[in-house]
């Protein structure tokens, strides 16, 4: 079941983001270097909104949206606990985020994707706009966008 993510979920959401990132065979050093970026601070909920996927009273995935202006939302986080990757949780979460953007009159949803997730987003209709250099030399992050023509 997908429900609203709350401030008090911050610790569990952080655990999921770190575990999920590590799933893609990044080194422990790389994960440590991203720890601050992957930490969900409770005050983030003062500005962003999100949802969590709850299964048997356990949070197994989540996403966070940042409405940057009247036109654009940014998908800042979408992570799934590794034992649930490939079981449809991520697909349900991204579909929920897309529906939320449509219902809230967003024209565009952007995401700066991990290279390992590019195909996941492409399957949902996202298009690559550009590639951005990451903190790892030679690693490029796809900046992707999904438009909602019905809201334009």
Short note summarizing the structure:
The chain is 30% helix and 32% strand. By secondary structure, the chain is α+β, with helices and mostly antiparallel strands. Strands 1-2-3-4-5-7-6 form a 7-stranded mixed sheet.
Tell me the layout of helices and strands.
Layout lengths: L1 E3 L5 H13 L5 H11 L10 E7 L2 E10 L4 E9 L8 H15 L4 E5 L5 H6 L3 E7 L6 E8 L5
Parallel strand pairs: 4-5
Antiparallel strand pairs: 1-2, 2-3, 3-4, 5-7, 6-7
Account of the 3D structure:
The radius of gyration is 15 Å and the shape is globular. It is α+β, with helices and mostly antiparallel strands and 152 residues long. 30% of the residues lie in helices and 32% in strands. The chain is built from four helices and seven strands; from the N terminus they run βααβββαβαββ. A hairpin with a 2-residue loop joins strand 2 (49-55) and strand 3. The chain has helices spanning 10-22, 28-38, 89-103, 118-123, and strands at 2-4, 49-55, 58-67, 72-80, 108-112, 127-133, 140-147. It has a seven-stranded mixed sheet.
